[in-house]
Cytochrome b-c1 complex subunit 10 (Tachysurus vachellii), 55 residues
Amino acid sequence: MLSKLIGQKYVSIGKAWIPTLTIWGGVAGIGIIHFTDWRLILDYVPYINGKFKKD
């Protein structure tokens, strides 16, 4: 159905870009964690959460 709306050519181009967009999305996510309050985000990761317990 999607290929009928936008065309087979653009569907194949989009499928070729999926791995690249996945990598860049991961890089952007790590960048957001790095430049924001990383502890606020990483408190939800179970292994890291135990390392930084407040007394």
The helical segments are 2-6, 8-35, 38-42, 46-49. The mean pLDDT is 82. The longest helix spans residues 8-35. DSSP finds four helices and no strands in the chain.
